[in-house]
Amino acid sequence: MGFWEGLWRMALAPLVVLMVVLTTVPLWIWLERRVCARIQQRIGPNRVGVMGLLQPMADAAKLIFKEDITPAHVDRVVYLLAPIIALVPSMAALAVIPFGDLQAADVNIGVLWILALSSLAVYGVVLAGWASNNKWSMMGGIRSAAQMVSYELGMSLAIIAVLLTTSVYAASHGGHALSLRTAVNSQQGVGPLAWNFIWHLPAFVVFIIAAVAESNRAPFDLPEAEQELVAGFHTEYSSFRFAMFYMGEYVHMTTLSAVCTCLFFGGWLSPFAGIPLLARLNVSTVPVLMYLAPLFWFFLKVTLFIFLYIWLRWTLPRMRWDQLMALGWVVLLPAALVWVAVVTVLAGAGKVVDGFVFSGDGWFRLLSLLAVAAAYLIYRRRRGSS
Amino acid sequence: MSETPTEQVQSPSAAVAQLDASLRAACPDDVLELSSLGDSPAWTIVPAAIARVGARLRQAGYDHLELVSTVDRGEQIEIVYLLDSMLHRTDPRRLALRCVVPREAASLPTLCGVWRAADWFEREAFDLMGVTFTGHPDPRRILLPDQWQGHPLRKDYEYDSDTMVQEILDAELNNDDLAGTDGHAEHDGMVTEDLAVNMGPQHPSTHGVLRLRLRLDGEYVRECDPDIGFLHRAFEKLGELKTFTNGIPLTDRWDYLNAMGNNMVHCQAVEAAMSLEVPERVHWTRMLVLELNRVASHLVFIGTYGLDLGAGTPFLFTFRDRERILDMFELLCGARLTYNYLRIGGVAADLPRNFIADRVRPFLAYLPDRLAEIDQLLTGNQIFLERTKGVGIWPAELCVSYGLTGPLLRASGVARDVRRVYPYARYDQCEFDIPVGENGDCYDRYIVRVAEIRQSLRLLDQICAWFEANEETTRGQISAKVPRVIKPPAGEVYTCVETPRGELGLHLVCDGGENPYRYKIRRPSFVNLGLFGEVARDQKVADLIAILGTTDIVMGEVDG
After folding, report:
1. H or E segment at B165?
2. Which CATH superfamily, name and number, covers B235-558?
């Protein structure tokens, strides 16, 4: 590794990633406010900057200059640390995400790193709830802990299902099975048809639901359920400490959307790649575009998921905590578990018949579609008969 | 002593005579004289025997304690009980019981064992009139702070505001633990800590300044004690201090989502006391604004109920639709919330030209599509169904015993609507259904109101048709001949209207002067909240919010 490459890898690339992500947060906040306004037949903020784009900046400036109140009754050290604990892990998780060529660190345990850090973020919420020394905040914190534990499992299993096929790919094409870069590379093929969300549909659905729950967004926003707990864990926070929770939520959303993009939506791959007539659009040899195009596709996909988050939040009522637990433990976890078993069997079967008409991968895809279709038909019949 | 004479019944109907005979036969020493209260017969009962007579009438089918009113008669305090029947057919349908107790020892047995509704009624009577009810399970003040001295509705009441308010503030501010202390609970050998918390008076979901003192066991509510009175504005006292005309704007402020209905009950009571007949057009104009107001109020309920369950968007949708009604009211009377539109003997102003064709008719065509939109967003939403179906089931008997009225009662399957039982204006000439629920759960309480909007639209359609037929011939006939100074003759009446929250009643006692002598309001939100402490027990916190949301209380009315 030469000096310049080392400088880029060790210092500049992480900085660029951090900057890029921090820049997207105000963008998401703006998007959320504009989209929710549209959904509610309002206009939304449109006064500060073009189309109100600078509104989140103005809000941030306001929050910074507000008085930072530390109530007398709180556990001071923990109270001051909690927002940091909430924000930092979600940001650190971004390190291993490949935005095209841009990546802070391509470590060989990328997925593990993400799972570890995104479950660390719950400590921020739990500690904030506890340190606030407020009964309602504590309930928010406890709810958050229970929720994270329930959804972490389903989410991890959904990821494991994808990793199974990624590892098959890694075994034949090289690369680390747990690296998100390998996961994206394994989805090269005929445009979106090669992406995992089709061949891992159950895992995709489980992941999306669990991701919404992980980031404490409606309809799973129980820890801060306004109508029940006033503001839950962040009731006692003001000024920039409150802003850090707020930012943490959006960074967490970004991280999870990015992971989802990598695992299920082909990461930076163009939706037109490999499609015969559109192959001429391939820009991988054009000097500047070859770097920008992957970034463009990646952020477009992330934006789609953020939009989905926003759409869900402003459409659905909130679930009750026991219904939420039931969904996590009784529906998502078994579904993901069954899917992991199915993938294991099908990927194994694909390996056995590898080369017979299709490749092993092709066989897996065919069989997985058949499995999902069969499950759906059985569900329809059982529902019809009852 | 200003004894206001009560009019003797000249020829009691056969049913009243029969009931009189059977009552005297069952309780020979307890029943004194038979008089009347408005149209209803009234029996004076020996105070010590009120529980016995009450239980007897309860058995005879009078399952609804409609109102407990108190009148300061100088040397004596008179307690008036209004009884009605919901699940049974009784004849006469409504009757009154009177007890007269000496002022200095104003005490009589409680009726809590007979009707659960007596609980809050009697606490209120104690708080404001100083009548004690022996055997009451919870004899605290209800609207005023515990440290309050005296009973404001007594005619000789005077108070030293500065010192008393300071004492009350000191007592409240020095109380470090307003929620009470945490306790211990045991589950299967594991000791856990109970959490004592205040929900409100500042809380997003208590619909105003309601304070619930909760004892939580984890996410479960083990005890719930509603604390009300933060918005007490002494309307019954103010009613006595204002003339009959000046009292109208005050009524706007009781239940501010239903100002027209409040105007109505006031005007209707005074008109009944004066035996005043209003022109036909006034009846229809009043029905028009009453039904529009009902739709507006139910739209607020749908929106805020979505909000209670965490769905913010329907709120914006329903408020957009409600805006159209407020625009119409603004055109009618210049106000959007406190209308002050009805007058004794009429209404303040005639409808603007083409009001029906340009405003009301387009709205009737517009709203059904919007309701379909709400149905998609909420009624058909799986999460919404999971949150409301089977949650907070109130059996019909429970509702009746607590004196619930309005959509809350009808959701439990009791088809009682004042517009049908005691028709006022021209409701007896209109066709409408009374939507009822099947299970009495949160979903039914929600869906009954949605159905009531549709029935109101149906009524509005008929009202529009009347105006279209009679617009020209009746134009300008918006008031009866009313004397300049309104002085109803001495006597008393009870009248009621069906508001979006239930039966709003007014027990009006006149002594021939320019002001009411007693102005007792039956506030449906207040009565409906009475059962909340009981139904909240053992619910989850999230369900508590879902259930409280369906009561659709307006604190301005609860706190009087």
Report:
1. helix B161-173
2. Cytochrome-c3 Hydrogenase, chain B (1.10.645.10)
Contacts of A42 in chain B (CB under 8 A): 316
Give the residue extent of every domain in chain B.
14-134, 235-558
Tell me the HSE value of B72 on the side-chain side, using a 13 A CA sphere: 21
Q: Write down how long chain A is.
A: 386
> Is residue B134 classed exposed, middle or buried when 0-12, 13-18 and 19+ CB atoms within 10 A define those classes?
exposed
- Do the Cβ atoms of A230 and B204 come within 8 Å? yes
For the residues B329-344, what does the mean pLDDT come to? 92
Counting one residue from chain A and one from chain B, the pairs whose CB atoms sit within 8 A come to 77
pLDDT digits (tens, 9 = 90+) for B144-198: 888 888 899 998 888 777 778 888 888 777 766 656 666 666 666 667 777 888 8
CB–CB contact B205 A227 (8 Å): yes
In Å, what is the CA distance from A93 to each residue of A103, A117, A157, B7? 12, 6, 19, 84
ipTM value greater than 0.85: no
Confidence (pLDDT) at B31: 82
Per DSSP, what are the bridge partners of residue B186? B191
Which amino acid, B280?
E
Residues whose CB is less than 8 angstroms from the CB of residue B519 and which lie 6 or more positions away in sequence, other chains included = B235, B236, B239, B240, B247, B506, B507, B508, B509
Whether residue A285 is predicted with pLDDT greater than 80 in this model: the reply is no
Instruction: Report helix, strand and coil shares of chain B as percent, to nearest 5.
Output: 40, 20, 40
Among A140-144, B186-190, B506-510, B541-545, name the most confident range. B506-510
Closest CB to A314: pick one of B307, B313, B540: B313
Choosing among 3.40.30.10, 3.30.70.580, 3.30.460.80, 3.30.70.2190, the CATH entry for B14-134 is: 3.30.460.80
- Is A228 in Cβ contact with B205 (below 8 Å)? yes
B339 in helix, strand or coil? coil
Task: Give the model's pLDDT for residue A48.
Answer: 87
Cβ of B311 within 8 Å of Cβ of A40? The answer is no
Closest chain B C-alpha to A254 CA, distance in angstroms: 23
Q: Cβ distance B456 to B260 under 8 Å? A: no
Identify all chain A residues contacting B317, using CB atoms and an 8 Å cutoff. 40-41
CB-based contact A316 B312, cutoff 8 Å: no
**What is the tens place of the pLDDT at every residue in A76-109?**
888 888 888 888 888 888 888 888 777 777 778 8
Whether B14-134 shares its CATH topology with B235-558 is answered: no
| pLDDT computed for residue B1 by the predictor | 38
